[in-house]
Design goal:
The protein is an alpha/beta fold. The protein has helices spanning 17-25, 71-85, 105-116, 135-145, 161-166, 173-185, 203-215, 233-239, 248-261, 289-303; strands spanning 29-34, 90-95, 121-128, 149-157, 190-196, 220-225, 228-229, 267-270, 280-282. Helix 9 packs across helix 10 (289-303). The longest helix has 15 residues, at 71-85.
């Protein structure tokens, strides 16, 4: 019996990012993770200090290039690694570390357009906060998207503001909806980040976050596992016994529940997160990423399920 999920050419019962990229660009496309030297309003005191409790000293850019190197050098270094793995690869420049729309527009333009001039680069992925989206920026990104592929990643993590306060997120769900709406009005693809296992959240809350995000019909979603990393506020809370980490099977079942309530056409850019091996304190089972992904595949088959099976769009108002 074949795979019943329509957005797949493998055994995956969810809409993988690799499938989307292959359909759009016709070849292997890899992301090159960059640190452009930007900061964050949750670091410089504009919104808060210290960042989100789980955020590493690298600003969640632990796999990005070396901050002291130019963007051109970071791209070249990462391409050298990728080209040893795959032939005829195209690339998306991924502005990953910290908040990559938190600068004057002229500065952002110089950074974005400098990497687009490199051979083989077919687009940009820009990670940022929803409270760092504004109309002039969206207008520019709309113009840029007429020339190349552009997607914006918004860190939401949870729809629940009580959780946002617990993790020192320093923006509300209402602010997320405002930023998301501005991007959507310009037809700019948005990837929404959600984290499972945040302090105080139940499985029902995690699934509800996915359900509500699904109603927005985002282009894509990233599902992460909460990692405890060294040198973070979360690590200190965990060491004091204030934080309980998810078990592997609980995570697998939660992700499957979330996939079921997301629209089938929404791209799942990530199904679990990577924690830096040098910084990771837990959960240690997450280091076996392949086992987690296989577990999700098997659970969907066991259920006879797939992405979107329980998705119920809102009636037009």
């Amino acid at each position: 019996m074949g795979n019943p999920f329509p957005y797949s050419d493998t055994n995956k019962r969810y809409h993988t990012y690799s499938y989307f990229l292959k359909q759009k660009f016709g070849s292997k496309v890899a992301k090159l993770s960059l640190d452009a030297g930007f900061t964050c309003p949750n670091l410089d005191g504009t919104k808060g200090f210290g960042g989100c409790t789980y955020c590493s000293p690298q600003g969640s850019g632990d796999f990005a290039g070396e901050r002291s190197h130019s963007l051109l050098r970071q791209m070249q270094e990462q391409r050298a690694v990728m080209e040893n793995k795959w032939q005829d690869t195209q690339y998306i420049a991924y502005f990953q570390a910290r908040t990559n729309t938190y600068a004057p527009l002229d500065e952002l333009k110089r950074a974005y357009e400098s990497v687009l001039s490199m051979p083989g680069v077919v687009g940009l992925s820009i990670a940022t906060r929803p409270d760092c989206i504004w109309e002039e920026l969206c207008g520019y990104l709309q113009e840029l998207s007429a020339k190349t592929f552009v997607e914006v990643e918004l860190g939401l993590q949870s729809i629940f503001d009580v959780t946002g306060e617990t993790i020192n997120r320093c923006h509300s769900y209402a602010e997320f909806l405002q930023g998301y709406g501005m991007l959507q009005s310009k037809n700019i693809p948005v990837c929404v980040h959600l984290i499972n296992g945040l302090p105080g959240e139940t499985r029902e809350m995690m699934v509800e976050s996915a359900r509500q995000v699904g109603q927005l019909r985002p282009h894509s979603v990233k599902l992460h596992l909460l990692h405890v990393l060294k040198q973070t506020a979360l690590a200190r809370q965990w060491e004091r016994g204030e934080v309980t980490l998810m078990e592997k099977q609980d995570y697998i079942e939660t992700v499957c529940d979330q996939l079921e309530v997301l629209p089938p056409e929404t791209v799942i850019q990530r199904i679990t997160g990577d924690g830096s091996r040098e910084l990771l304190l837990g959960p240690m089972w997450s280091r076996d990423k392949k086992s987690v992904m296989n577990g999700i595949d098997l659970e969907l088959v066991r259920r006879g399920s797939m992405q979107g099976l329980r998705f119920c769009p809102k009636a037009p108002q």
